[in-house]
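Model: You mentioned two targets. I'll fold them one after the other.
Researcher: Yes, keep them separate.
Model: Target one:
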Amino acid sequence: MLEVLDPPAVRRWSRLAAENLGRAREEIDALNVFPVPDGDTGTNLHLTMLSAAEALEGLPGDADAATTWRTLAQGALLGARGNSGVIVSQALRGLAEVFGTAEGRGADLGRGLARAAELARAAVERPVEGTLLSVLGSVAVAVRDLSGDLASVVRRAAEEARAALRRTTGQLDVLARNGVVDAGGAGLALILESLAAVVTDSYTERLDIPAPAHRLTPEPEAGPSYEVMYLLEADTAAVGALRGELDALGDSLVVVGGEGLWNVHVHVDDAGAAIEAGIRHGRPYRIKVTHLAAAGRTHRAARGRGVVAVAAGEALGAVFERSGAVVVRRDPGASPSAAAVLAAIRQAGSEVVVLPNDSGTREVAAAAAEIAREEGTVVSVLPTRASVQGLAALAVHDPLRRFDDDVVAMTEAAAHTRYGHVWVADRVVMTSAGLVRPGDVLGVIDGDAAIVGADLVETALEVVGRMVSASSELVTLLEGSGAPGGLMRAVQDRLAGERPDIEVIRYEGGQGGYPLLIGVE
C-alpha cells in the first residue's frame, strides 16, 4: 500500500494503464458512437498512454517528481490520438501541474484531479455532457474535499468513475439510442482503476466495461468528413485566434498543451483549410488527416504515376507542364491552397510525387498529401526549395521504375542541384551580405544572401561563378519577367568562355520578382 504517489509508482501506473487499455481496446472500440462511430477510441487511448509510458522509460531511474510528471504529460501530448486521447493528455497535464511540486498524498490527488478536470473541459471548445469530461468532472467533485490517505482517495476516485460511466448512457441521446456507455469515459475509468491497482498493490481486478445493451449497428451521425490533428508550435495568443477559426470550420475542436507546443484536434469538411489555419498561426507538424465519412464522400484517384509541381507564374508553369507535370500555379511570394494541391494530386495519378519548389509551400503540400493518402493515393513530397531543383528532379523522373526508386532518384537529383537568384531591391533590407538599398542587386546562393552589387549582369555573373565548381556539369537559367535583354546571353557567353564543358539550358520562366533563377548540377 503506497502512502505517496512517487516517481517509480507513476512509471508503474503509466505502463499498467497502457497495458490494460491494450487488453480492453476492442471492448472500448465497440462502444464508440460519439462524436463519430469510427470504432477507434480504445485504440486511440491505448496509443496515447503507451506514448506517455514510453516517454518515462527514457528517463534515468532517479528522475525527480517534477521531471517525471512533466515527461508523462509531454509524452501523452506528443502521442495523443483522437478526441479522447487529446483530452486525456490534457488531464495528465493537470495532474502534473499539482504533483510536480507536491508530496503525492491523498489530498494532492484530490487537487490534481480537480485541476485535470478544469484543464480538460477548458480545452474542448463545445463540451458535451455524457462524455469523458462528465466522468472526469464527477470524479473531481467526489474527491476534491477528501483528506484521507492516498489509497482511500484513489479508491473513491475509481468507484466514482465506474458510477459516472454508467450514468453517461442517460446523459447523451446517441448513447441511449445505441445502449452504450461513453467509450472515452470507459477508457478514463480504466486508467483510474489502474492507478488504484498500483497504489493498493492489487493487480488482479480490472474494470468490467459495460457491454452494449443490444447488437450495435450505429448509424453515422450527420457531420464533417475529416478528422484533422497536428502538433503546433505557437504562442498562446496565436492559439486563441486559431481556436476561433477552427470552431467556425467544424466541430469536436480540442486544443491542448502549453508553453509553445499544442496538440490540435478538429472535425471538418475542408481539411486543407484547417491545416492552413495552423500554418497561419504557427508551425504545424505531424499532420494526420482521417476520412470519417467515407460513404459517398471519397474521391477516385487517377491511375498511374504522376508528378505535381508548384510554379510561380504562367510561363514557369508552362515549363513544368512541357516536362510532364500537373502544375499548381501560385502568385509570387504566396503559397497555393491545400485544396489546389490536393486537386492536382487527384488528377496526377495513384502514385504521385509532389514538388513544392519553395520552402513556404512545403507545409501546404504536406497537408494535401495527408488527405490524398487517406483517400488511397501513394504520395511523396520532395524537399525541393527552388524551381530549378524541381526541374532537376523532374528530369530524372521515370514512371517505369518502382515508385520508391523513382522518389530516391528524384530526391538525389534535387539535392545535388545548387540554386540561386538575383533580385533588384525595392526597399531597404539588412542581410548577412550587408545592407541592401533600393536599386541594389542582391545575389542569393542556396537560400543565403551572398553578394550585394550595383549592376544586375555583373552580380548575376558573380553568383554563377561562385556556384559552379570543378564537378559541375549543367547550369539551368530561368529568365524572369522584366529581365533586361541579354542577361541570360551574358551568363551563357561567360560560361562558354570559362567552362566550355558545362551544358547550359535556358528557359523563359516569366517569374515575377527575380530577373534570373539559377541552378547548377
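Model: Target two:
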Amino acid sequence: MSASSAPHTHPGRKDEMKPDEEQPGTEPTATVEGWLTAFGEALAHGDLSATTDLLHEDCVWRDIVCLTWDIRTFDGQAAIWDGLGERLKEAPLTGFALRPSPAPRWVTRGGVRSIEALLEFRAPAGRGEGVVRLVPGPTGPRAIAVLTALHELDGHGEALGDRRPSGRRYLRSFGGPNWADDRRAAAAYRDTEPEVLVVGAGQSGLAIAARLGQLGVDTLVVDRAERVGDNWRNRYHSLCLHNQVWVNHLPYLPFPDTWPIYIPKDKLGDWLESYAESMELNVWTETSLAHAAYDDTARTWTVTVDRAGAARVLHPRHVVIATGVSGIPHVPEVPGLESFSGPVLHSSRYTDGSSYAGKRVVVYGTGNSGHDVAQDLHNFGADVCMVQRSPTTIVQVEPSAQRVYSLYTEGLPTEDCDLIFASIGYPVLVDTYRELTQRIAADDKPLIDGLEAAGFRTDIGDDGTGFQMKYMRRGGGYYINVGCSDLIVEGKVRVRQNHDIERVGPAGLQLRDGSTEEADAIILATGFKGHEEFVRRHFGEDVADRVGPVWGFDEGGELRNIWKPTAQPGLWFHAGSLAQNRIFSRYLALQLKADLEGLTGH
C-alpha cells in the first residue's frame, strides 16, 4: 500500500460533526446501492428527467476536472442541467460502485442529516471518485449533494505501488552514472527544458511538483530563498501552526505519528527541505523570476530567471505561481509615517522581540501576525500598543478554532477526509461555518466580552460565517488566540483604534484628543498584496488585467483562478493551507498532465 493511500488516523477529539446514529428503518448501504443503480441507468439512457427525479431540488453538484476540466459548483437542479446536462449525455459517467470503505453512514453536514457515501466510477478521461449525500424524499432517497472528481487519467497513473520505478538500472550499471549523478543532471537542465516551471518552493510549490513528478511531468521549482523551507524558518521566532498535525500532511509523505499536535515553524521548514529531497524534486534556490512572456503560437513561455546573479532563459509549457496567499508585503498609507523618527518595518521582516526589551512599540494590525508579534514583544519586555483598523474575528485556539477541522477527527483515513472536504460546495460551506460560528461565539463569549471591555472591536464575519470564511474570502481579518487576547483583556497589551489617531509624528501616534502614544518603533502587521500584484510585476499589465483577481470566491462559489484554468493560457496558481495544497495539488496536476497529453482541447 502506498504512503498516500495508507490509512493515517489519529486519536483526535470528536465533536459535533461526528457521524450521526443510524436513522431507524433506513439501512444506509442498501439505500445508496439502490440509488446508484437508478442513477447509473438514468445516465446511461441519457434520461435527464429520470436523473432529475433522483436529485433534490436544492442539490449542490461540485465537479472537479471530471466533466468540465475545471472546478465548478452547480447549485440547484436548473444550474446542474444548464452546466452539466449536455456533458452527461455526451460522455456519461458509468460503473458506479461504493468504495470498499468507509461504509455509507448517517452524517450531518451544513445542518442537514443525510446518508453519506464515497463512490468510484468511470469518467470520460479516466477513473473517478466522488461523494453522494442522500436525504429521504416522497418517492425515495434523493441526492442533496454530489461530488464528481477525476482521480486518475487513463494510461497516466501515478508512479506508486506496483508502478514505482524498479531501480534495476542502478543495480547493475557499474562504471556508469549512479542515482546521484542522474539527479544532478536532471536538476541542472543543461540540455533540456522543464515542461512546467513552478515559482515558489514552499508547501504549495513542493506539493504540486511532487504530484507532477509522479505523473512523469518534468518540473522545475525556483525560489529566491537560500534553502528550501526558509519561507518558514525566516518568519518570527515564536511562530507555530495554529491547526493540528493531522490536518496538515503533504502528498505521499504524512507527518510521523511522533510529531507534536501543533507544528513549530522551524520543524516544518526542515520537513519541507527533506520532502523535496525525498520526492526527488528539481529545485533551484537563490533564483528569482525576472520576466515572462507567452508565445500564443508555440504555446510556450519564455521565462528569464536570475540564478545567483546569472540569467537563465527557460521555455516551459506551463508556469505555476505558488508563492502563497501572502506574498508581497502591503504597506498602507499611514498619515505622517514618514516623519516618525524610529525604525519602521513590516511584520514579514520581524524575527523576535529581543532587541525591543524596555522599548515602546506600536503594532499596526490585529490579525494573526499582529497579535503574535505583539505577544512576542510583550514577552521580551516591550511596552506594546496595537492599532486596530477594523473589527477582528477572535476565536480560542482550543477547542473553538479546531471545530472547523473536525471532519479530520472522525477516524477516517486522510484521503477519505480530503474527498469529503472537497465535496462540500459553497452553499453548504457557508451554512456549515455559520452554524459552527454561532457555537464558537457562545463558547468564547467570556473572552469576547473581555476584549470589548478593553476597547477591542470584534465581529463574527461579514455574514456570521466566522474566521474560516474570512480566510477564504480575503486571507485575513481574524486571530486564533494563543494568548495575546488574554494580554489585551488584562491590560498588558494596549489597543488604540485607528479612527482615534490623527497622524504619526516623530515621537509616535498623535491622537485626535491632543495626546501622544509615544513609540520607539513601529511594526506594520498590515498583510500582503494579492497574487495579481506579483503577476503585474513579472508578467506585465496585460496579463494581470486578463487574469484578474486571485483568491476570494467567484460568482459560482469557487476560489478565483486557484487550481483551475485562468484567462491566460499556460498560467496557473496554487496556494492555500497545507490541507488545501494536499487536496487540490492532485487536481491541478491532472489538468496540467492532461493538457500536455492533448486531452483537454485547450
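Researcher: Noted. Anything on target two?
Model: Residues 1-18 have pLDDT under 50 and may be disordered.
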